[in-house]
Amino acid sequence: MEVSAKVSVTSKGSIDAWLRKMQPALKPATVDIGLVAGQARGDVIMYGIYNHEGTSRGIPSRPFVKVAFHRYQGAARAELRSGLRAALNGTPFKASAAKAGAVGVKWVQGVIDSNLGPPLAASTVARKGNSRTLIDTGTMRGSITFKVR
User: Fold this and answer.
1) Which sign, positive or negative, has the C-alpha torsion 136, 146, 100, 91?
2) Where are the domains of the chain?
3) How sure is the predictor about 25, in pLDDT bands with cuts at 50, 70 and 90?
4) Could you tell me the pTM of the whole model?
5) What percent of the chain has a predicted confidence (pLDDT) above 90?
6) pLDDT tens-digit map of 42-101
7) Which of 103, 108, 101 is nearest to 65 (CA)?
């Protein structure tokens, strides 16, 4: 899933000189948000995939990353625009991307905290002792992070 934003630029003077000056700040960056390989344990990533996508063995899909992406899509665009504006004023875009990543982590964790449906099976509630979806020990929620590339 991708979110992109457009920014218009107006400048007085030489656009070539301005672009040369701005080139280091405008270097593109990608932000991965979720259970990031190399930062989350492999078993936690697999648990996240099973819960996000569901399985043929009875785990229903609870797409916490997709829900966060769709719920906060407009806010993510605004965050990117803000980062691009900061880059146009000389702040490296990578710094703005890191800020956006931290905000994105909070959004995904918020969806996990929201008790995303469908509800747990009665047998799962009996085993866990509660009806909270996506949270058993809190390890997966705590492993949500970001990486700027």
Assistant:
1) positive
2) 27-148
3) low
4) 0.82
5) 60
6) 999 999 999 999 999 999 999 999 999 999 999 988 888 888 788 777 787 788 889 889
7) 108
φ, ψ at 92 (rounded to 5°): -55, 135
49 token code pair: 């995939």
Task: State how far the Cα of 47 lies from the Cα of 35, in Å rounded to an integer.
Answer: 10
Q: CA 69, 57, 131 angle in degrees (round to 5)?
A: 60
What does the alpha-carbon distance between residue 21 and residue 58 come to, in Å, rounded to a whole number?
56
Q: DSSP characters for the chain?
A: -----------SS-HHHHHHHHTTTT----EEEES-BTTB-HHHHHHHHHHHH--TTS-----HHHHHHHHTHHHHHHHHHHHHHHHHTT--HHHHHHHHHHHHHHHHHHHHHTTPSSPPPHHHHHHHSS--SS-SSSHHHHH-EEEE-
CA neighbor of 35 nearest in space, from 56, 50, 54 = 50
